[in-house]
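User: Thanks for the earlier help. One more: K-box domain-containing protein. Can you show the sequence and predicted structure together?

Assistant: Of course, both are below.
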Amino acid sequence: MWRQLLGQQLSGLDVEDLQNLESKLEMSLKNIRLRKDNVMMDQIQELSRKGSLIHQENMELHKKVSLVHQENINLQKKVEACRNILPNNDADSTSDIFSIHFSGVYKTKSNGHPTGSTIQHSFLITDNEIGPNLELSLPENVEKE
């Protein structure tokens, strides 16, 4: 029978056997096409789902890029404002001073009791012929816990 489905050894078959063989082949072909269609539909749905996820991730990344860009613009404005406020000390070097305030629990070296306070930390950025130099400072009696 298998060889007959492959088109071999058909010479001894009568018309009825050939018609049965033809209907079996048509049924097999129909089942193969149905399975192929189902597999393709599943793949299309999966690709559509992945496309939606990628689109959503792309939108989130665009929002993040926009926020970072806006933050960069704000920081550039602050740096420019600091440069406009502070005079240049030396014609050969450029210095910018920035102050940052950190809130947190600190303990003092003298008594060791924790205090919840805001402490000013300053840093100085100097650009000279060697390259940028960064100096950080913290009041001497304060130690971060």
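User: Great, one quick takeaway?

Assistant: The CA atoms of residues 10 and 144 lie 93 Å apart.
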